[in-house]
Amino acid sequence: MNRSRLVPGRHCTLIVTGLLNCLSPLTGSAETYSTLPPPPGISSADSNTQQQEFMLGLVVNDDDRGLVVPVQFRDGHYLLRAADLQRAGIPTAQVTSSIMDVSAMDRVKAEYDRQRQRLLLTVPPEWLPAQTFAGTTHNGPRYEGRSSNGALFNYDLYASQTTGGGTRLSAWNELRLFGGYGQFSSNGIYQQQITGEAGALENGYIRYDTWWSNQNEDHALNLQVGDLISDSLAWSSSVRLGGIQVGRDFSLRPDLVTYPLPSFSGQAAVPSTVDLFVNGYKTSSNNVQPGPFSLTNMPFVNGAGNAVVITTDAQGRRVSTTLPFYVASDLLKSGLSDYSFSAGALRRNYGLKNFDYGAAASSGSYRYGLTDWLTLESHAEGAESLALGGAGVQLKLGAWGVVNSAVSQSQMEGENGRQYSWGYQYSTSRFSVGMQQTKRTADFGNLALYADHQDNSDTIEYNTLSRRSAQYNASVSLDRFGSLGAALIDITSGSGDRTHLLNLSYSRTLWGNSSLYISASRDQQSADWSGAIGVSIPFSDLSSASISVERNQQGGTAERLNFAHSMPTDGGFAWDASVANQSEGGNYRQGNLRWRNQKVETSAGFYGDDDFSTEYADISGSLVLMDGGAFAANKVDDAFVLVKTDYPDINVRFENQLMGKTDKQGYLLVPRVSSYYPAKYDIDTLDLPANMTTSSVEQRFSVKRQSGYLLHFPIEPLRAASVILHDQNGEPLPLSTQLTREGQQTEFVGWDGIAWLENLTGRNVIHAQTPDGRRCDTELTLSGGRPQSLTTYGPLICVLPPLPSRNTP
């Protein structure tokens, strides 16, 4: 290149970012410097060159972010503006002036890349911005629970005839109302002795529970008014109340993880890839930039394990770090709280009397995650002559399990008592161990005991709490040789009676999917053994057989043979039958046949031995009132979805499982839905006629507890057709002519003047604009207000103005 032809004072060159950047020296001209900036260490004799400014690409620790910044070269040093360094990730604390000499900064290396016009900086990795990869800090995206207004009536009719006991009829029912105002439920059972003696069971209706509840999902709060069961901790008890309850309910938010998951931190000197392996399985791979990084995208595991973090840089160099961890779901995340408070009247004679409430009482629990390894717990109860308070802790011992401890003090009817509780749990993928002990003084009381005193106030016999209880358990996986478990239970009742049981169990998969199960129990007090051994053999996905031999503590034996066929997902027949040869009580026989469709489930069968037998029949289901109609369906235990398509015989799937076809009115009820679970619902439109269409075939959402939701997949006649458009000369409108209609998206003319128009009505005014700018209007009128199936309309004439003359100025 002839240097004399360069523009004085400006030199342009291509840098790595792909942009043409101009280097402007502070002094001198094109003849003063070469075609590239000088490297450090140039002779100081050339003072003009020593005080030049250049535009260079800035790369920090091999991380090229495409930054182009002004760089001053002065006496062998590189000077950069503070703002440019901060843009590159250098922390403010390391930038002490507006112009920084990076060559003189401590622990910083500056290198000039002459060929690619870049300034390469190497700084300590801890200076650079921290990065956090938190892909699974929750279960996934949040789906707020939905609910439509409606009513539900569950029923279960059961009739039985017993040898010597006559015939008895019972009808369980539940009435449920739901919508944006919350959920209301009332359930109970009606019983009637038809023939024979009623015995201890009374005839008539018995109400179980009546309540109203509402939820605040943002704060994971649940409010319930009416009959309720108080919440409890592992070392406290629950009671039935009639009153009010408010508390946390994390089941409302399945997207939240309430217990602490481990995180792993490190530093990358250069751009790298970080892979996380948990218990030998790769769970994530992340590209990290230079600087500190933290991995919190831990899978949902429980117990002890090992995590391996492998860092690989661009040159293939790998660093592997193994870190043990322990995850305990009983702990709360640091700063997270869980609580519940209940107050009302103690429920008396539940299941025997409809409205029997006793003394006023209250109960409350509170838990708080002080750190990720320490959770504090507290509990209190109160009544007219009862006061109880207690506190406890859950403490994680690093990677060696969790210990718990609690102490409670009570005063009941003037007597003071105390309860102590402690335990330990440790589990891995191969084995687990645990123990839990509770000790109580003779005068310790709580609401459960207080309520029993209220129920039996007219007698002198009260139940008592156990004085001591201990549970020990262990299990180990033997891989292909099966699994082994052991448990020891030792309980001393309030009267001094002791129960001391040892249980051993073993299971193993045999050929195919068949399995072997062995169990043995020993009563240490009587030194008697009992046990069972059984083999299960599946014949198909739905059918199986099992055979077992059992021995009780009295030495009696029984050989059992059982055959079963499970209910298909979309309904049909299911059955099971078994026989047993018993050394005591005669031979036992049992059989049951069930049938289910989309609207009802029925069953009938028998069971008993040579001396005593029962025959029974049962029918259950639900009746739903929603969207102005009544719909029969299977029994709804939690939530349901009513799918509406406005078209019959459409296949509906729930989580990819076929649930059935819509009825003549276009409805199908999906009865077995887990509340707050974000499930997928879709319909199959492959069999739709060509003139029918839908705007949506799949949705994912969750339903509120004890509620239902109307899911609408509108299937309607296709209001679209092909239309041919010509100009006044009979020629097709030009390709790519834009067509606009009021309230509709822009459409385009294709080859031969044919356009596909959607959302047509009875009268359709069409505005056309050709690619050369000419405009015209036409109109399509449809008899009946909608297009006929598979019909092409036209040609429609759209009068275009003439093309402007080429000589027009």
From TrEMBL:
Q: In what way does this protein cross or attach to the membrane? A: Multi-pass membrane protein
Q: Which UniProt keywords apply?
A: Cell outer membrane, Fimbrium biogenesis, Membrane, Transmembrane, Transport
Pfam families for this protein: PapC_C, Usher
Places the protein is found: Cell outer membrane
The PapC-like C-terminal domain is annotated at: 725-783
**Family of this protein:** Belongs to the fimbrial export usher family.
PANTHER family per UniProt: OUTER MEMBRANE USHER PROTEIN, SLR0019 PROTEIN
Q: What is this protein called?
A: Fimbria/pilus outer membrane usher protein
Q: Which organism is it from?
A: Erwinia sorbitola
